[in-house]
């Protein structure tokens, strides 16, 4: 009888460092990478490299900002994210570094953005001739594609944002409106740096599109309606100007980004930036395993979101808290609850707990009270009280006079 040959350990393509750690959820992964130390890097010399974003998980500190951005990827119903802070606090770097974490969606393969739901809503005439032919032949009009980060330049004009006349449509003997940045942002992330410096007409267009999920462009007799379902991310430095209240109200999560206060963290941040500048490819490779794991966790959390519920015994005290804070906007609890659902989904759970609500409450509830509105409503309450008092006595004197006259006649 021959002895069995010794079994060899199975080889795996996963990085050894990733296998040495087991992460139960996305939050544990982020916490681990925050304390990860980098091995020595060798600088690149004379090599042309593609533009690689700074790894999201390599950003030192800024836990609240990173958490808010991850929750926005998991649950778009949060309603947008606003990053408020001074210059040099990694706001723009954090947003651009989301590229390697973005999930996939079904995207139109047509230049004009035609979708199957266009035909369902408006018939075959609602799409371009090429897509009508594809639909008739049973060919798909969409294909899986990664969510993209669309940036709105500060010098953008209104036609760049909403769209203008497209001469390319003449090939189909039709005049159509060219898709603008808002239409390109459909089912993507729309990032606006220095949002407080945008002109009013562009801001109004963005607000309308964000509120409706679509917008209509009219150029003379020609009109076109485009979808604009995007997650809005904005950043601003308060030193450069305030943000209009109606714009602020459109952002679900508001993050106050501070500079790093810990000297050790500041030094580590410098080391990582230095490593990235010296060799972007090698530096990003140091975090590639964790970034892939985080992207997988985000995909799982997005699939879990529809199953996450908030029990009434958790939701009712939360609404009472919002009322005690004097917050009038219903968007407060909508954002708060949706963020808590995303937080629970990132933890692999299907039920929101009180701890979930506490974890995301500062981001969802801050900057929602208005001193102007509080004073205005208080003055209005005084006016209403005075008016009700006068109305309660209205007509009493006339009735009293009638009684006196009737008494005098009897005498």
Helix content: 40-55%
What would you call the quaternary organization?
A: single chain
Alpha-carbon distance between the two ends: 137 Å
By CATH, the superfamily of the domain at 308-394 comes out as: Magnesium chelatase subunit I, C-Terminal domain
Using only CA atoms, what is the Rg? 29 Å
Architecture (CATH level 2) name of the domain at 308-394: Orthogonal Bundle
CATH T-level fold name of the domain at 308-394? Helicase, Ruva Protein, domain 3
Structural class: alpha/beta
Stretches where pLDDT is under 50 for at least 5 consecutive residues are 1-20, 45-50
Q: What kind of sheet is the major sheet?
A: 5 strands, parallel
Strand order of the largest sheet: 4-7-10-1-11
- Round the mean pLDDT to the nearest integer and report it: 79
**Element pattern in H and E:** HHHEHEHHEEHEEHEHEEEHEHHHHHHHH
Number of helices: 18
Total number of strands: 11
CATH class of the domain at 308-394, please? Mainly Alpha
Q: How would the global form be characterised?
A: globular
Our estimate of the beta-strand percent is 5-15%
Indicate the topology.
Blueprint: H1 16-19, H2 26-34, H3 63-74, E1 81-84, H4 91-96, E2 104-108, H5 116-122, H6 129-136, E3 142-146, E4 149-151, H7 158-162, E5 165-166, E6 176-177, H8 181-184, E7 189-193, H9 200-212, E8 214-219, E9 222-227, E10 231-236, H10 245-248, E11 253-256, H11 263-278, H12 280-286, H13 288-304, H14 312-324, H15 331-346, H16 354-365, H17 371-393, H18 396-410
Parallel strand pairs: 1-10, 1-11, 4-7, 7-10
Antiparallel strand pairs: 2-3, 5-6, 8-9
């Amino acid at each position: 009888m021959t002895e069995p040959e010794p079994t060899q350990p199975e080889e795996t393509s996963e990085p050894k460092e990733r296998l040495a750690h087991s992460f139960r959820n996305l939050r544990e992964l982020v916490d681990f990478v925050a304390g990860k130390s980098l091995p020595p890097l060798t600088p690149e010399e004379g090599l042309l490299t593609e533009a690689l974003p700074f790894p999201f998980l390599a950003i030192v500190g800024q836990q609240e900002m990173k958490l808010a951005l991850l929750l926005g990827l998991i649950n778009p119903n949060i309603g947008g994210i606003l990053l408020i802070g001074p210059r040099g606090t990694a706001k723009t770097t954090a947003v651009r570094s989301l590229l390697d974490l973005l999930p996939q969606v079904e995207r139109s393969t047509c230049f004009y953005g035609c979708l199957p739901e266009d035909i369902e809503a408006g018939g075959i005439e609602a799409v371009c001739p090429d897509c009508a032919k594809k639909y008739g032949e049973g060919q798909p009009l969409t294909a899986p594609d990664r969510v993209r980060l669309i940036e709105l330049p500060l010098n953008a004009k209104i036609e760049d944002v909403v769209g203008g006349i497209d001469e390319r449509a003449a090939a189909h003997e039709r005049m159509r409106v060219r898709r603008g940045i808002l239409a390109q942002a459909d089912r993507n992330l729309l990032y606006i740096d220095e949002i407080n410096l945008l002109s009013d007409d562009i801001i109004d267009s963005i607000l309308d599109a964000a509120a409706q999920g679509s917008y209509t462009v009219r150029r003379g007799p020609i009109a076109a309606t485009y979808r604009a379902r995007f997650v809005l991310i904005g950043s601003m430095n308060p030193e450069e100007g305030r943000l209009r209240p109606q714009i602020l109200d459109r952002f679900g999560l508001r993050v106050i980004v501070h500079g790093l206060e810990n000297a050790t963290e500041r030094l580590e941040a410098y080391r990582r930036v230095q490593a990235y500048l010296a060799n972007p490819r090698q530096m990003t490779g140091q975090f590639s395993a964790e970034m892939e794991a985080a992207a997988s966790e985000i995909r799982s959390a997005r699939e879990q979101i529809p199953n996450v519920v908030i029990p009434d015994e958790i939701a009712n005290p939360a609404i009472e808290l919002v009322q005690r804070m004097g917050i009038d906007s219903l968007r407060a609890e909508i954002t708060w609850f949706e963020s808590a659902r995303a937080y629970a989904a990132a933890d692999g759970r299907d039920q929101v707990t009180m701890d979930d609500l506490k974890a995301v409450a500062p981001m969802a509830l801050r900057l929602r009270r208005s001193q102007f509105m509080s004073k205005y409503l208080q003055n209005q309450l005084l006016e209403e009280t005075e008016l009700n008092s006068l109305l309660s006595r209205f007509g009493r004197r006339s009735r009293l006079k009638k009684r006196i006259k009737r008494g005098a006649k009897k005498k």
